Amino acid sequence: MSSIRNLVGQTAIYGLPTIVGRMLNYFLVPLYTAVFVDTADYGVVSELYAWVAFLIVLLTFGMETAFFKYFNEREDKEAVFRNGFLTVIGVNVFFFLILLLFNQSIAEAMMYGDHNEFIIILGLVVVVDATAALPMAKLRAENRAKRFSIIHFSAIAVNIGLNLIFLLVFFNPEEPMEGVLFILIANLLASSIKIIGTYKDFIQLKFKFDKLLAKAMIKYSFPLVVAGFAGIINETLDRVMMKPILVGTGMTTREALQEVGIYSACYKLAMIVTIFLQAYRYAAEPFFFSQSKNKDRNKLYVRIMNYFVAVVCIVFLGVALNIDIFKEFIRNEDYWAGLGVVPILLVANVFLGIYYNQSIWYKLSGQTKFGAYLAIGGALITVLVNIIFIPLYGYWASAWATLVVYAVQMIVSYLLGQKYYPINYNLRKFALYFGLAIILFFITQIMNLDPNKFSWPKFFIHNGFILFYVFVVWFIEKGPMSSKPTPETIAET
């Protein structure tokens, strides 16, 4: 249990800035949906930031995970950091030079030919974020939690402060594209805080490149780049594909962007699961690598998975059964048309969380190629389903495609893991925890208490179900049932 307490502590230390930051940025949704009266204008912001997600994965080049692996394995830790950092810097310099040469062509291809400045500033944002990733990872690896948190919170504060100032004081609602530009500039200035906070790693960097070490790190990280890039396709490609596909069906560009805006705003409500997941991943990845030599590691991984599944299901219930409250974060009722996709996306993110938790098997075993295969397979399904069904069902197709892809990846990853790096996960507990959460959700739907309209009786009934779920989990994990042996625990011992 001490190892699990350590993981919880690390999640709190390194995840708290992420949770708070994501939650604070989450509170920008009411601001954006209020100032962008036309959902199409918010659709522009959503589409641009979907591209940011792609580029961050590409430009960090999987070096964070490679850094953690080699940092724990090698004595020359500074060399590990230096070679990873130089690799990331080289990739980003090359990318930005390409962007400067072809920004107008890129803008025209994205149907923003009159706003090539969006492309340049967006490129700067991702370059700054990607370049700061390794110094921030180094702080985590060296357990410099205080400095990590200060830098992270400072960047968040700057971003939110500038958004409020720009959009509430200087923004002209009659010029919505000006608002988009303000958001990008605020993000760029906020991201620069990470560079400032880790400036010593930049000014003390020695251009001493170990080709053999760099080659080993790149060989390890490259499948992760492919996996990450394909994974981002699963997470964000729907918002990139939706506009051109809907325009191809006869919609105007503005009508298509309105659909993107509605879907993106409602997608934000489902991202509470993702917020928890991101915080967990910050701590879990270095933690799992640090436990790789522990002879009882598999027992630990099983127990962690049990708790993880329970927690993400509680988050799912918390949002899905209180959607009438969470929808108020979207200040413009025009966006509420898409609230029906939120439970679908919540379940999808539960599957994604479980898949990420399982993915440690191919990282620990060094078989990162399987991560690439799984992500590429998911990306192909995402593209295929969206192309076929968006013309028929709009953003509903994207929501269901997300759920199907993450479910398939979770199942296939489990099966591969049992073959190449067996961890005897407690499938009965997974079925119980997930199944009970789904049953409780459907009971509330059958009761038909108008899920989109708040009432006190519904509030107490729905949250009573959530408390019941928490009690069941506690009873199984900590109560009398926890002491009873199961086939899984017998196998572990």
Task: Note the topology.
Elements: H1 2-26, H2 28-35, H3 39-60, H4 63-73, H5 77-109, H6 116-141, H7 145-170, H8 176-197, H9 199-203, H10 211-248, H11 253-290, H12 297-320, H13 323-326, H14 342-358, H15 360-364, H16 369-393, H17 395-420, H18 427-447, H19 456-477, H20 487-492
Structure explained in plain terms:
The chain has one domain (2-492). It is globular. It has 20 helices and no strands. By secondary structure, it is mostly helical.
Outline of the structure:
By secondary structure, the protein is mostly helical. It contains 20 helices and no strands. Helix 3 (39-60) packs parallel to helix 11 (253-290) and helix 10 runs antiparallel to helix 11.
The radius of gyration is 23 Å
Overall pLDDT score: 86
Q: What's the β-strand tally?
A: 0
Secondary-structure-derived class: mainly alpha
Order of helices and strands: HHHHHHHHHHHHHHHHHHHH
Approximately how much helix is present in the residues? over 70%
Question: What's the number of structural domains?
Answer: 1
Shape: globular
The description of the largest β-sheet is: none
- Counted by DSSP, the helix tally is 20
What is the beta-strand fraction?
A: under 5%
Low-confidence stretches: 483-493
Task: For the structure shown, list the relevant keywords.
single chain, 82% helix, 493 residues, mainly alpha
